[in-house]
Amino acid sequence: MLKRVSVLRPLRHGISTFSSKFCKNDRLYRVHPSVAHALAENRPVVALESTIITHGMPYPHNLSTAKEVESIVRAQGATPATVGVIQGKVHIGLSSEELQYLACSKNPLKVSRRDLPYAVSKGLSGGTTVSGTMIAAHQAGIPVFVTGGIGGVHRDGENSLDISADLTELARTPIAVVSAGVKSILDVGRTLEFLETQGVCVATYGMSKNFPGFFSTKSGFPSPYQVSNAQEAAQLIASTLSLGLQSGVLLAVPIPEEVAAASQEIEQAIQTAVAEAGAKGVTGKEVTPFILQRVNELTTGKSLQANIALIHNNAMVGSQIACELSKQMNKRKLRSTIHHDGEQTTDSKQDIVVIGGINVDFIAKGKTEKLLFGQTNPGSVCQSFGGVGRNIADSLSRLGHRPLFISATGADSNSDAVLNYCKHMNTSGVARLEEQRTATYCAVITASGELSLGLGDMDVHQQITEQYVSQFEKQLSSARLVCLDGNIPVSTIGYVCSIAKKHDINVWYEPTDSVKASKPFLSEAWKSLSYSSPNLAELCTMNKTLGIQTPEVLPCSLDEVLNLALALSRPLLEHLQCLVVTLGANGVLLCGEHDAGSVNLQPRKQKRRGQLCALHYPALAVTTEETMNVSGAGDSLAGGLIAGIVQGRDTDSCVQMGLLAARLSLASLHPIAPALTLDLVDPNKVPTQEWPKPSFMWIN
Q: Among this protein's residues, is 552 annotated catalytic?
C-alpha cells in the first residue's frame, strides 16, 4: 500500500546510524585548525620537528626558539605546523600551551618511526624526530619540512651499524626536508653514500656546490646537485612529487657565514664529546642529546647560539621555498581547469559555504507506536550522527559539490567519531575546542520513526561565533551561495547577512525548529536572505517576529494549509526570493516571483518586480516497508534543491532533485543516504510518469 510520507524532519537536526569503519589516521592524528584551514585553501604550510624542543636544547631556550621559528615561518607568509606527540595523539600544529607542555616535559620520549606505535599505544608524550615528523607531515599533506640537521651514519658506523632512521625515511616518504645538512657529530661522507644508495635526491641551496657541514658552510664533500634559489628548489620538489617516486628531497642550506666562525672550536668540542660518550657507554638514541649537551658546555654556549642561528636561517629559507612551491602548484591547478581551446572552466564544486550544527546522536527507537513514559519500553538504542548544517553539507558533497562546512565541536571522542564519518566532506572549517563538549542529542522515537521525546546538549553551537566565522570572510564573500542553519548565534547570522549584502551573495536559511526560526527576523538581517525552507509552524514564527498576526491553531485540511502558507509567505517575499514551505505528507509549496508559468528559483541581482505565485508539489509515493526513518528527509530536500539551483537547473528539476534525495533518505538509516549520487536524483534519468504534476497558484 502506498502512502505519502513527510519530507519534514521531526528531528530537525538530523540523525544517522553509527559507522563502525574507523580510520586510524583520523583518530590518532590531530591537525590544528590553522593548519587545516591553510591546507584546505592551498596556502603554504611548513612542518617543524619537536625533538629540538624536547631533546635538542635546555629550557627555556627550547621554548623560545620554537616560538621564534614559528614566527619566522609566519613572517614569510606560511603557516607553521610543529609536530609532536601529546598523550598518545600525533599533533600536527601545536598551540602555545602544547609547546609549553613539551618544553617542560619530564623524560619525554624521542619519537622516531619505530617509536610511534609504542607512544600512541601507551598514551605517551614526546618530540618527533625527522623521520617521525616526516610521517605526520605526509599524512597531513604538507610537502615541506624544516629542521636543524638530519640524522645520518654515526662515526664508526661501519662497525656499530648506527644509522639514523631519518635516512630510510627520506627514501620512502615524499617530503622535502630543508636542513643545514647532517649533524656535525656524524659521518658526512658515509651519510651521503647511504642517501645515494637509497635513491634520495640531495641538493645544496645557494651558489656553493659543497655539501654544508652543519656548524660550517663546507663539509669537505661535494653535493650531488645545487639549486640557486627558492624558485629552483620548488621546481625540484614539484618534479619529485609529480614523478610519484615516493622518496623525499634533502635540501642542504649552509649556515650563515657570520655565525660559522666558531666552527673549528665546535669541531674540537665534538671530538671530545664523542670520546666521552664512548668512554661512558652512551649508546643508541641517547648519543645525540648527550653529545649536543656536552658540546654546548665545552664551547660555553657558542654551539647553542650557532644552532639557533642556523635553525632560524633554515626556517626563513624553507618558508620561502614552501611559498614558491604553493604558488607553482596553484598555477598548475589553474591550468588544469582550462580547455584545450583556451576557454577557462568554472569550478562550481567549492563555491558553497554551509554554516551550522554538527551533532552526535543517541537514538532510542521503540518497537511500538505508543511509548509508555515512566517505565521501560522494548526497543533498540544506537549512536548516530546529525546536525542540520552537517546534513546539508553532506548532501551537497554527495551531489558533486565540495562546500566548505563551518561548525564547532569539542576536542573529545565524540568529535573524533563524527569527523571520521564526515571524511568525504570539507570539514576544514570545523573548530575543535578544548573544554567544550561536542553537541549530543538523545531522541526517543516510535516504531515508525516519529519523535516522542528529545534532549539536546547543544551549547557548543554558541561557539560558532561572528569572530570565528569572520576568519572565512574571503570564502564567504566569493561564494555563490551560503547556507545557514538556526543553531548558530543571532550575531553570527547578522554578520553573514551583512557580508552577503555587501557582496551580493545569496543566503539560504534553514530554520531547524519553530523557536530558532525567528533569529534572522530579530533585526534587519532577514532582508538579506534569498531562500528559506520553513515548515508551517516555523513560517508562523517568522511572521510573528515581524509583528504579523498568525492563527493560534494550525489548520488540518490541505486547502486551508495551502491558503495559510500563501498568506504567510506574502510579507516575507518582499525581500526573500523564494520560500520552500515543507508540508509533510502534503508535499512542498514553492513561493516566489512568477516566471513563464513557474517560480523563478535562479539567483537574481535586483529586487523583485514581477507578480508572486506558488507551485504545490505533492510528496513522492513511498511504501510503508521502504520507510526506515523520516529524520533527514527535510535536510536532503534542501540539499537537493540547493544543488539544483547552483547547477542552474530549471525549477521543476530543482524540486524533483530535492524530492528524490528526500525519498532516498526515507529509505535509509542515515539522514543523508550514503547511496546518494547525482545520477540517482537527476530527473532526466528517472521515469517521467513518477512525477506528480505541480499545482499553480497566484499569490495576491
A: no
